[in-house]
Design goal:
Radius of gyration: 17 Å
Structural class: alpha/beta
Strand content: 25-35%
Number of domains: 1
Bound molecules: zinc ion
Shape: globular
CATH topology: Metallo-beta-lactamase, Chain A
Strand order of the largest sheet: 4-1-2-3-5-6-7
Number of strands: 13
Oligomer: single chain
Distance between the termini: 50 Å
CATH superfamily: Ribonuclease Z/Hydroxyacylglutathione hydrolase-like
Helix content: 10-25%
Protein backbone atom coordinates (compact mmCIF):
# COMPACT_ATOMS: atom_id res chain seq x y z
CA UNK A 1 0.00 0.00 0.00
CA UNK A 2 1.47 3.37 -0.95
CA UNK A 3 2.56 5.64 1.88
CA UNK A 4 -0.09 8.20 2.66
CA UNK A 5 0.56 11.87 3.14
CA UNK A 6 0.41 11.43 6.91
CA UNK A 7 3.84 9.79 6.83
CA UNK A 8 5.46 12.88 5.36
CA UNK A 9 6.30 14.83 8.48
CA UNK A 10 7.77 11.83 10.30
CA UNK A 11 10.34 11.04 7.63
CA UNK A 12 13.71 12.31 8.87
CA UNK A 13 15.86 13.66 6.04
CA UNK A 14 19.57 12.93 5.70
CA UNK A 15 22.03 15.78 6.22
CA UNK A 16 21.88 17.96 3.15
CA UNK A 17 24.74 19.60 1.26
CA UNK A 18 22.33 22.03 -0.44
CA UNK A 19 21.59 25.72 -0.08
CA UNK A 20 18.60 27.66 -1.37
CA UNK A 21 20.83 28.91 -4.21
CA UNK A 22 21.06 25.36 -5.55
CA UNK A 23 17.41 25.51 -6.64
CA UNK A 24 16.85 27.19 -10.00
CA UNK A 25 13.51 27.97 -11.62
CA UNK A 26 13.42 27.09 -15.33
CA UNK A 27 11.04 29.05 -17.57
CA UNK A 28 9.41 26.53 -19.91
CA UNK A 29 6.83 28.79 -21.53
CA UNK A 30 3.20 29.79 -21.24
CA UNK A 31 -0.13 28.10 -21.91
CA UNK A 32 -3.52 29.72 -22.43
CA UNK A 33 -6.66 28.26 -20.94
CA UNK A 34 -8.85 26.91 -23.77
CA UNK A 35 -12.16 28.20 -25.08
CA UNK A 36 -15.07 26.98 -23.01
CA UNK A 37 -13.23 27.05 -19.70
CA UNK A 38 -14.27 29.59 -17.03
CA UNK A 39 -10.79 31.09 -17.24
CA UNK A 40 -10.63 30.93 -21.05
CA UNK A 41 -7.72 32.91 -22.48
CA UNK A 42 -5.90 33.33 -19.17
CA UNK A 43 -2.15 32.82 -19.52
CA UNK A 44 -0.41 30.39 -17.16
CA UNK A 45 3.37 30.16 -16.97
CA UNK A 46 4.98 26.74 -17.02
CA UNK A 47 8.08 26.13 -14.91
CA UNK A 48 10.40 23.31 -14.15
CA UNK A 49 13.13 23.34 -11.50
CA UNK A 50 16.77 22.33 -11.58
CA UNK A 51 18.61 21.37 -8.40
CA UNK A 52 22.40 21.50 -8.60
CA UNK A 53 23.30 18.67 -6.26
CA UNK A 54 26.99 17.74 -5.79
CA UNK A 55 26.12 14.20 -6.92
CA UNK A 56 24.44 15.39 -10.12
CA UNK A 57 21.85 17.68 -11.63
CA UNK A 58 18.23 16.90 -10.71
CA UNK A 59 15.39 18.18 -12.87
CA UNK A 60 11.79 18.46 -11.69
CA UNK A 61 9.30 18.45 -14.58
CA UNK A 62 10.13 19.00 -18.24
CA UNK A 63 7.41 21.28 -19.59
CA UNK A 64 5.14 21.18 -22.61
CA UNK A 65 5.38 18.41 -25.17
CA UNK A 66 5.18 17.87 -28.86
CA UNK A 67 3.00 19.88 -31.26
CA UNK A 68 0.21 18.12 -33.11
CA UNK A 69 -1.77 16.93 -30.10
CA UNK A 70 -5.15 18.04 -28.84
CA UNK A 71 -3.50 19.56 -25.75
CA UNK A 72 -1.35 21.78 -27.88
CA UNK A 73 -4.22 22.74 -30.16
CA UNK A 74 -6.45 23.68 -27.22
CA UNK A 75 -3.89 25.33 -24.92
CA UNK A 76 -1.82 27.18 -27.59
CA UNK A 77 1.43 26.94 -25.64
CA UNK A 78 4.37 29.19 -26.20
CA UNK A 79 6.79 26.44 -25.28
CA UNK A 80 10.48 26.82 -24.62
CA UNK A 81 13.00 24.09 -25.33
CA UNK A 82 14.26 22.81 -22.04
CA UNK A 83 17.80 22.11 -23.26
CA UNK A 84 18.07 25.68 -24.54
CA UNK A 85 16.73 27.10 -21.30
CA UNK A 86 19.15 25.04 -19.22
CA UNK A 87 22.05 26.13 -21.42
CA UNK A 88 21.10 29.77 -20.86
CA UNK A 89 21.53 29.10 -17.15
CA UNK A 90 24.93 27.48 -17.66
CA UNK A 91 23.58 23.94 -17.25
CA UNK A 92 23.98 21.07 -19.72
CA UNK A 93 21.05 18.77 -20.49
CA UNK A 94 23.55 15.91 -20.75
CA UNK A 95 24.49 16.43 -17.09
CA UNK A 96 20.98 15.71 -15.79
CA UNK A 97 21.21 12.67 -13.55
CA UNK A 98 17.59 12.34 -12.43
CA UNK A 99 14.30 13.62 -13.85
CA UNK A 100 11.38 13.78 -11.43
CA UNK A 101 7.91 14.15 -12.92
CA UNK A 102 5.50 15.50 -10.32
CA UNK A 103 2.79 13.90 -12.44
CA UNK A 104 2.23 12.75 -15.99
CA UNK A 105 0.28 15.61 -17.47
CA UNK A 106 1.38 16.94 -20.85
CA UNK A 107 2.79 20.21 -19.42
CA UNK A 108 5.01 18.41 -16.88
CA UNK A 109 6.59 15.54 -18.82
CA UNK A 110 6.43 16.82 -22.40
CA UNK A 111 10.18 17.00 -22.95
CA UNK A 112 11.28 13.92 -21.03
CA UNK A 113 12.71 12.51 -24.26
CA UNK A 114 15.55 15.05 -24.07
CA UNK A 115 16.88 13.20 -21.01
CA UNK A 116 16.96 9.52 -21.88
CA UNK A 117 20.28 9.19 -20.02
CA UNK A 118 18.39 9.78 -16.76
CA UNK A 119 15.65 7.73 -15.11
CA UNK A 120 12.23 9.36 -14.78
CA UNK A 121 11.14 9.21 -11.14
CA UNK A 122 7.36 8.77 -10.99
CA UNK A 123 4.91 7.39 -8.45
CA UNK A 124 3.93 3.88 -9.48
CA UNK A 125 0.20 4.60 -9.34
CA UNK A 126 0.70 7.65 -11.59
CA UNK A 127 2.62 5.55 -14.10
CA UNK A 128 0.03 2.79 -14.15
CA UNK A 129 -2.84 5.24 -14.54
CA UNK A 130 -1.09 7.07 -17.38
CA UNK A 131 -0.49 3.77 -19.16
CA UNK A 132 -4.23 3.08 -19.06
CA UNK A 133 -5.59 6.54 -19.78
CA UNK A 134 -3.04 8.80 -21.43
CA UNK A 135 -2.45 7.41 -24.91
CA UNK A 136 -0.60 10.34 -26.43
CA UNK A 137 1.55 11.01 -23.40
CA UNK A 138 2.36 7.32 -23.23
CA UNK A 139 3.58 7.49 -26.82
CA UNK A 140 5.98 10.30 -25.88
CA UNK A 141 7.71 7.92 -23.48
CA UNK A 142 8.27 5.25 -26.09
CA UNK A 143 11.72 6.56 -26.92
CA UNK A 144 14.89 4.55 -27.01
CA UNK A 145 16.48 4.25 -23.61
CA UNK A 146 13.57 5.68 -21.60
CA UNK A 147 13.64 4.30 -18.07
CA UNK A 148 11.21 4.83 -15.24
CA UNK A 149 12.09 4.64 -11.56
CA UNK A 150 8.76 3.84 -9.92
CA UNK A 151 8.18 4.98 -6.35
CA UNK A 152 5.54 3.94 -3.82
CA UNK A 153 5.11 6.93 -1.53
CA UNK A 154 8.08 8.73 0.01
CA UNK A 155 11.68 8.12 -1.01
CA UNK A 156 15.02 9.88 -0.62
CA UNK A 157 16.64 10.29 -4.05
CA UNK A 158 19.91 11.91 -2.98
CA UNK A 159 21.02 13.35 0.37
CA UNK A 160 18.77 16.36 0.90
CA UNK A 161 16.32 15.54 -1.91
CA UNK A 162 13.24 13.37 -1.44
CA UNK A 163 9.92 12.83 -3.14
CA UNK A 164 6.74 12.76 -1.12
CA UNK A 165 3.26 11.74 -2.21
CA UNK A 166 0.79 14.62 -2.53
CA UNK A 167 -2.10 12.87 -4.22
CA UNK A 168 -5.18 14.70 -5.44
CA UNK A 169 -4.53 16.73 -8.58
CA UNK A 170 -3.81 13.34 -10.10
CA UNK A 171 -3.94 9.90 -8.50
CA UNK A 172 -0.16 9.76 -8.14
CA UNK A 173 0.96 13.39 -7.90
CA UNK A 174 4.19 13.87 -5.93
CA UNK A 175 6.28 16.79 -4.75
CA UNK A 176 10.02 17.18 -4.21
CA UNK A 177 11.38 18.45 -0.90
CA UNK A 178 14.88 19.94 -0.93
CA UNK A 179 16.55 20.47 2.43
CA UNK A 180 18.45 23.74 2.31
CA UNK A 181 20.35 26.03 4.66
CA UNK A 182 17.10 28.01 5.03
CA UNK A 183 14.91 24.99 5.70
CA UNK A 184 12.93 22.69 3.43
CA UNK A 185 11.89 24.03 0.04
CA UNK A 186 8.97 22.24 -1.61
CA UNK A 187 8.91 21.96 -5.40
CA UNK A 188 5.18 21.50 -5.52
CA UNK A 189 4.27 20.87 -9.17
CA UNK A 190 0.49 21.23 -9.37
CA UNK A 191 -0.22 20.60 -5.69
CA UNK A 192 -1.83 24.03 -6.07
CA UNK A 193 -2.36 26.28 -9.07
CA UNK A 194 -1.08 29.39 -7.27
CA UNK A 195 0.38 30.54 -3.97
CA UNK A 196 -3.06 31.82 -2.99
CA UNK A 197 -4.52 28.42 -3.82
CA UNK A 198 -1.87 26.77 -1.65
CA UNK A 199 -2.55 29.16 1.20
CA UNK A 200 -6.32 28.74 1.01
CA UNK A 201 -6.23 25.04 0.09
CA UNK A 202 -8.38 25.86 -2.92
CA UNK A 203 -8.44 23.06 -5.47
CA UNK A 204 -8.81 25.34 -8.48
CA UNK A 205 -6.83 23.58 -11.16
CA UNK A 206 -8.77 22.95 -14.32
CA UNK A 207 -8.61 19.18 -14.07
CA UNK A 208 -11.09 17.10 -12.15
CA UNK A 209 -9.64 16.37 -8.70
CA UNK A 210 -9.14 12.64 -8.36
CA UNK A 211 -9.56 12.81 -4.62
CA UNK A 212 -10.36 16.18 -3.07
CA UNK A 213 -9.94 14.98 0.51
CA UNK A 214 -6.53 13.45 -0.18
CA UNK A 215 -5.60 16.69 -1.91
CA UNK A 216 -6.52 18.90 1.05
CA UNK A 217 -4.78 16.49 3.43
CA UNK A 218 -1.63 16.67 1.31
CA UNK A 219 -1.61 20.48 1.40
CA UNK A 220 -1.96 20.45 5.17
CA UNK A 221 0.85 17.91 5.48
CA UNK A 222 3.10 20.04 3.30
CA UNK A 223 2.45 23.08 5.49
CA UNK A 224 3.26 20.91 8.52
CA UNK A 225 6.78 20.52 7.13
CA UNK A 226 7.17 24.25 7.87
CA UNK A 227 8.75 24.88 4.50
CA UNK A 228 10.85 27.98 3.94
CA UNK A 229 9.20 28.21 0.51
CA UNK A 230 6.87 26.35 -1.81
CA UNK A 231 7.52 26.76 -5.52
CA UNK A 232 4.75 25.83 -7.95
CA UNK A 233 4.74 25.06 -11.66
CA UNK A 234 2.17 27.65 -12.72
CA UNK A 235 2.86 30.58 -10.39
CA UNK A 236 6.07 32.59 -10.70
CA UNK A 237 5.77 33.77 -7.10
CA UNK A 238 7.00 31.63 -4.20
CA UNK A 239 4.79 30.80 -1.22
CA UNK A 240 6.32 31.69 2.13
CA UNK A 241 4.92 30.99 5.59
CA UNK A 242 3.08 33.89 7.19
CA UNK A 243 5.85 34.44 9.74
CA UNK A 244 8.23 35.27 6.90
CA UNK A 245 5.73 37.60 5.25
CA UNK A 246 5.21 39.74 8.33
CA UNK A 247 2.08 40.18 10.40
CA UNK A 248 -1.33 40.11 8.76
CA UNK A 249 -2.86 43.56 8.25
CA UNK A 250 -4.96 44.71 11.18
CA UNK A 251 -8.69 44.46 10.67
CA UNK A 252 -10.54 47.76 10.46
ZN1 LIG B 1 0.27 21.69 -14.82
Amino acid sequence: MPARATTIARMAPSPSPLTAADILRVDLGTVFSPAGEPDSGVAYPVHGFAVTHPEGLVLVDTGVGEPGTTFVRDWRPVARRIDTQLAAMGLAAADVRLVVNTHLHWDHCGQNAVFTQAPFVVQRREYETAREREGIIWEWFQVAGARFELVDGARELLPGIRVLPAFGHTVGHQVVVVETDRGPVVLGGDAADSVDGFEQEALALATVPEDAEAWRAALRELKALEPAAVLLCHDPAPWHPRAARGPAPARP
